[in-house]
Design a protein that fits this description.
The protein is mainly alpha-helical and 100 residues long. Helix content is 62%, strand content 0%. The protein contains six helices and no strands.
Length: 100
C-alpha cells in the first residue's frame, strides 16, 4: 500500500513539474491550499479524498485513473475549457469552418 501511495504522489509531482506549474499555480487551479498540495507531494498527508484526486487530475490534464496508477497514459483525452471555448468560437465563424 505504501508503494502505491508513493507512485500516486510521484505522478502528481512529475506531472506538475512537466507542466511547469508551481504549487501556487496548482492551488489556483484546484481550489486547494498550497500547503495541502505540498503535504500531498511530500507524503505527509497519506489520504487524498476522491474529490481531490479528480480536481488534481483535471488541473494536471490527466485522468484520475492515471494518477491512481491504474493506467499508464498520462494525457487526458478531455480538452481544457479554454481550448473548447476557442474551438467553439472558431467553428461559429463561417470562414473558419474549413479548418474543421
Amino acid at each position: 500500500m505504501e508503494s502505491d501511495f508513493k507512485e500516486i504522489i510521484e505522478r502528481i509531482r512529475g506531472r506538475r513539474m512537466e507542466l511547469g506549474l508551481s504549487y501556487q499555480d496548482l492551488a489556483d487551479k484546484t481550489g486547494m491550499s498550497k500547503s495541502t498540495l505540498q503535504r500531498y507531494e511530500t507524503g505527509f498527508i497519506k489520504n487524498i479524498p476522491l474529490s481531490r484526486v479528480e480536481a488534481l487530475a483535471k488541473a494536471l490534464r490527466v485522468t484520475p485513473e492515471y494518477l491512481m496508477g491504474w493506467e499508464e497514459k498520462a494525457e487526458s483525452p478531455v480538452m481544457d475549457e479554454e481550448t473548447l471555448q476557442m474551438m467553439s468560437e472558431a467553428f461559429s465563424r463561417p470562414e473558419m469552418r474549413a479548418l474543421f
